[in-house]
Design goal:
Helix 1 packs antiparallel against helix 2 (36-63), helix 2 runs antiparallel to helix 3 and helix 3 packs antiparallel against helix 4 (97-120). This protein has helices spanning 2-29, 36-63, 70-93, 97-120. 29% of the residues are buried. The protein has one domain (2-120). The two termini are 25 Å apart. The chain is elongated and about 45 Å long. With 123 residues, it is mainly α. 85% of the residues lie in helices and 0% in strands. The protein is built from four helices and no strands.
Length: 123
């Protein structure tokens, strides 16, 4: 069961990163306001990131990682991703493309850093 959960966590992390990249590309390419496809990409990115966080919390308690830094890094990444995503969507709806692109870039950066740290396990 634990091994399956680890693989699900890793797969969801890749999916969350991919959907966040799709969202960021749609923000950059948007002409005026969020369209239907970009909303679907946004919802998919936020939902998959939330599932990554949920499986990560379960793994932290099941695997004895609660005292390590990994759950905290994941918490910052999931919370920051959600906050930056909401701002990006609001900025895009208000036709503030530059701010929307910056917030989407923060989303991508947070996930890339978290993914890199979790994969490399430097500590």
């Amino acid at each position: 069961m634990y091994v399956t959960l680890v693989k699900a966590h890793a797969g969801l992390a890749v999916l969350a990163l991919a959907l966040t990249l799709v969202w960021a590309v749609m923000v950059v390419a948007a002409k005026a306001g969020p369209g239907r496809a970009s909303r679907l990409a946004y919802v998919g990115a936020v939902a998959s990131t939330g599932l990554v966080g949920l499986t990560g919390v379960i793994l932290a308690f099941a695997g004895g990682f609660v005292t390590m830094a990994f759950p905290w890094i994941g918490l910052v990444a999931v919370a920051g991703h959600g906050i930056a995503g909401a701002r990006s969507q609001r900025f895009l709806a208000a036709d503030r493309r530059g701010a929307a692109i910056a917030a989407a870039a923060v989303q991508v950066a947070l996930l890339l850093v978290a993914y890199g740290v979790m994969t490399a396990k430097p500590f």
